[in-house]
Amino acid sequence: MASSYNLRGAKGKEPARPEEASPGRQGETSPDRGQGNLEDTVNRLVADVATHEEALGFAAETFEGFKEEMKLMREQMAESVALNRSLFDLVKNLQDEVAELRASNQRLLRISSSSSSHKRTSRVDVQRPAKYSGRRDARAIDNFLFQVDYYLDLQNVVEEDLKIKTAAMLLDGDAVAWWRRKMFDVENGDCTIATFDDFRKQLRGYFMPVDAERQTYRMVVNLRQTGSLREYIRAYQKLILDVPKMPEKDKLNWFIIGLQSWAQADVERSDPKTLEQAYVTAERLADTQRKSYTETFNEGV
Q1: Which pLDDT belongs to residue 173?
Q2: Residue 131: inside a domain, yes or no?
Q3: Where residue 8 falls among pLDDT bands split at 50, 70, 90?
Q4: Domain final residue, candidates 207, 232, 266
Q5: Where in this protein does the record put region Disordered (predicted)?
Q6: 74 and 101 fall within a common domain
């Protein structure tokens, strides 16, 4: 310290002592002014604290809002996850059902293919019925329609339009001319032929003799057994087809009446209730008669 003072003294100026410093130097603050500055500072601090508290309150509210939004988002996320799981399960079930349907379809295709193959191999080569030329004969008409119906069934023809066209192809002569007129009537709306039954009725209505049924009734009543019993049975069976409306009881009675007395007695003894039962009894008599004739012939030889 002494050397320091000596240096300063060498320059001609003595350093001032601390107690000699002037209390009234510029830059020094008075007590009143310092108190005002302190109050301002405190007020500013209070204002800052209030601002910070307001900011903290807003931040707290914002944070609560964020919490609510986060909660809502979590709930929505949970719902989305559940929905995705449900959709996944639904898609999985649909995929399983599609796979099952495909398997079923494959089985059906194999069955159908096998059935079609079986039908192709088992189909009978059926000869077409003889053509109908328009002959006005009840038996010829009924036989033609019966054969056509049977042919369509064997050929597995189920569409009505195809049935009609197939039957029309089996017409000839006057019957073809009749069918051309009928087609013209259908086009003009004068009649309707939409099914094979319609075709059958129209054909019978035009070509069937007016008194055909009456004539057949007369033939049934007048038929008598003049030859073998079996020939009589066959003749009666053919006639009876032309009188489908004849009561079953009349068919039975006229069959028995036409028999020769010996056959008539045997059939009546069996007391048949239907024409079919009478046929069976008569057929047995015919077999017995033939057997007896054969045995007698062998004994004579």
Answers
A1: 95
A2: no
A3: very low
A4: 207
A5: 1-38
A6: yes
Total domain count for the chain?
3
276 in any annotated domain: yes
Residue 286 near residue 229 (C-beta atoms within 8 A): yes
The predicted pLDDT at position 294 comes to 47
Round to whole Å and give the CA distance between 188 and 161. Answer: 18
- Helix and strand element counts for the chain (H, E): 11, 0
The answer to the question of residue 300 being in a domain is: no
Cα(157)–Cα(47) distance, rounded to whole angstroms?
Answer: 105
Please write the tens of the pLDDT for every residue from 246-283.
Answer: 999 999 999 999 999 999 999 999 999 999 999 999 99
Q: What range defines the domain where residue 68 resides?
A: 42-114
CB 8 within 8 A of CB 15: yes
Whole-structure pTM value? 0.46
The answer to whether residue 5 sits within a structural domain is no
Question: Which sign, positive or negative, has the C-alpha torsion 74, 80, 84, 87?
Answer: positive
Instruction: Give which of 242, 207, 204, 208 is closest to 223, Cα–Cα.
Output: 242
Q: Which of 66-70, 104-108, 111-115 has the lowest mean pLDDT?
A: 111-115
Average pLDDT, the chain: 82
Last residue of a domain, one of 207, 222, 254: 207
Residues 86, 147 share a domain: no
